[in-house]
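Lab notebook page, bench 4
Experiment: in silico fold of construct C2
Operator: M.H.
Input chain length: 282 residues
Purpose: comparison with the prior construct
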Amino acid sequence: MGNTSTSLLRSSPAWLMVPALLVMAVGFFIPLGEVAQWASTLDLYTQFFEPGDPYRQIMIDTFTLSIGVAVLTVALAYPVAFYLTRIQGIAQKLLLIAILTPLWVSVLIRTYGWIVVLGRTGLVNSFLLAIHATDEPVQLLYTRFAVYVAMIQVLLPIAVLMLYSAMASINDTFVRAARSLGASPFNAFRHVFFPMTANAVVSSAILVFVLSLGFFITPALVGGPNDVLISNVIQTQVNETMDWELAATLSVILLVSGAGLVALLVTLVRRAMQSDLSGGVK
């Protein structure tokens, strides 16, 4: 019997996908089907695309914020990941621990931390008042700036680890070869190293973007009245107004539009790179 099972797995490795597919079916596809049934009312979709619909503007703001967070997060994470690949020993281990430590803390606690830091009597305003940079506390909390800062801080370790993993697998021989052929450090980085990390850059940006679409705790705590995201609206419709049809409709629109935008971005990046994002060396 054991030999039969072993030969079956060898002949058809696709069987190894069965446990994962079962988990996906129970935890994602079946619930998604239920949500799609609740969102089967065409009037709600028609209302969403009518001029002046407030939920459509909130959806646009959500995508705009998520794109901005993704771009800024990857832009900040790239040099950190690059520096990680250039140091060794205890310094690298300590920096990795510093990057991983925030992941052990709840997002809710980290968000409350930013309330302490950015409040009118918080650390930032206390410092600005101490150096006489301002005569009165600056309104930092409950603004779009606070939402950006808090969301980027939550997602930055994920982007750093993804980029570091890709950079660590790159063979430095290619960069040294470019330098030996007369390329400057900047040109060697631009034409050799960066193209080989393009796939990781796009992947980390997409992951951060998708995660940003689902944020609702952080905008609710540090954002203002104009910083409500579509996830906050969905949460309100489910838990407070009990309008599950509207919540399901907004969820389906968010899922479809998010997937469509990701597909569009990947297509545009592939064409811009004039390759399949495999880098400068094939």
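Observations: The mean pLDDT is 86. The CA atoms of residues 107 and 154 lie 7 Å apart.
Next step: discuss at group meeting.
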